[in-house]
Amino acid sequence: MKDSIKAWLRAAGIRALKTFAQTAAAALGVGTAAGAADIGAVLTTSFIAALLSLLTSCAGLPEVGSKQ
Question: pLDDT, tens digit, for every residue of 17-68?
Fold first, then answer.
């Protein structure tokens, strides 16, 4: 696998993981404050946010410099 693809996968994966964690923390906080923290809903919402992060990364990542 080319080094540029590996670099992109690493950077996009880190961003998606951070997005997952941030979304989970926010959803748990809101769910707890509302008195109804449903772990299934938290995980589903966080997974969708991470997937959207990966799709957004397809437009480009500043962490991965382009060689032109």
Answer: 999 999 999 999 988 887 787 899 999 999 999 999 999 988 888 777 654 3
- 7 with 65: CB under 8 angstroms? no
Higher pLDDT, 10 or 1: 10
Cα R_g (the chain), whole angstroms = 15
CA angle 28, 53, 41 (to 5 degrees): 30
29 by DSSP, 3-state: which? helix
Per domain, the residue ranges of the chain are 3-57
Question: How far is 11 from 17, CA to CA, in rounded Å?
Answer: 10
- The CA distance from 52 to 68, in Å, is 28
Is residue 4 within 8 A of residue 67, CB to CB? The reply is: yes
